[in-house]
Amino acid sequence: MQKDGSMETHQQVEAMFEKRVTNTVIKFENVDYSHPNGAVALKNVSLEIKAGELIGILGTNGAGKSTLVRHVNGLLKPTHGVVKVFGESTRDTSAAKLSKRVGIVFQNPNNQLFAQSVKSEIEFGLRNFGYSEEIVRRRTDWALNTFSLLEYSSRPPMELSGGEKKRLCNALVLAWDPDIVILDEPTVGQDSEQKEKLAQSVKLLLSERKTVILVSHDIEFVWPLQPRVILMSEGKIVADGTAQKILGNSSETLAANILLPQLVDLFRRLGKTDSFPVDEFEASDRIKELAKEGFS
Fold first, then answer.
1. 3-state class (DSSP) for residue 30
2. Which of 212, 160, 213 is nearest to 190 (CA)?
3. What's the confidence (pLDDT) of residue 11?
4. Assessment of whether the complete model's pTM goes beyond 0.85
5. What percent of the chain has pLDDT over 70?
6. What's the whole-number average pLDDT of the chain?
7. Taking a C-beta distance cutoff of 8 angstroms, is the pair 71, 91 a contact?
8. pLDDT tens, residue by residue, 6-25
9. 29: burial class by Cβ within 10 Å (0-12, 13-18, 19+)?
10. What is the average per-residue pLDDT within 49-66?
């Protein structure tokens, strides 16, 4: 409904939706970054990410993945070049200001946890951002239940296992509902059930038009989500495109020392390289069809 009380036309609604999902929220312009010891971590990185996109950033250790995403919430500032988030240069915006709209789960959960209990860890961020006590209660309850942490709610976070700490970090960031969600190695220490819950949380975020960035070595977790894939090696972006295009290309993945997803590898061995199944259900249907055709 418009401000004058009249209803928007279908065309107006479509136009507003299109604007929302195509708006650039992150932009890297010729960015270099060197650590204080002089080690170069990013080299001439140029990149645009739009609202509502799912991004998978892949590469081996030392490829520059974590360094890149820490520029998005302003924890790192480029040595050369410009990073813009929501149209503002991160040089002119504090990490504190960005943190409500850009939530990041660090690779090492010990860098993110400090409260006396699991429950208070989740509550702290919500209160820090000024949410009412009712919202703090509801979102904390949601996080504890969604990430299977309810039984640990009164325990000190540092007494949790590595996988439980990772779940807690995922929970506390998602609880405050940022516009951009960055998950750095989110599946470390997680079993198949927790990975499935995490995948469903990612899909929910996308349905709400959030921008989600996954930094991961877990190719089998990333592949079914079919993100836009950004492949990094030695501080550079070496490939950028759909999951089907990038992860179906053995030469590009080999150059970045990334293994092919198992389903991609299987169908390449079968000589079927036009498109690859995204999960075991599609693979089963495709194999049944091939069997009927005699794998011709």
1. strand
2. 160
3. 55
4. yes
5. 92
6. 89
7. no
8. 444 545 544 444 444 459 99
9. middle
10. 95
Per residue in 166-184, is it b (16+ CB within 10 Å) or e — as a string? bbbbbbbbbbbbbbbbbbb
Please give the Cα distance from 152 to 231 (Å, whole number): 37
- Reading the block at residue 162, the tokens are 């590595």
Q: Which residues of 60-81 are buried (b: 16+ CB within 10 A; e: fewer)?
A: eeebbbbbbbbbbbbbbebeeb
Half-sphere exposure of 76 toward its Cβ, with a 13 Å CA cutoff?
23
Cα-Cα-Cα-Cα dihedral of 153, 157, 162, 167, to 10°? Answer: 50
Q: In whole angstroms, what is the distance from residue 167 CA to residue 250 CA?
A: 32
Q: Exposed (0-12), middle (13-18) or buried (19+): which is 268, by Cβ within 10 Å?
A: middle
Collapsing DSSP states into helix, strand and coil, what is residue 224?
Answer: helix
Q: H/E element holding 119? A: helix 118-128
Burial of 295 (0-12, 13-18, 19+ CB in 10 A): exposed
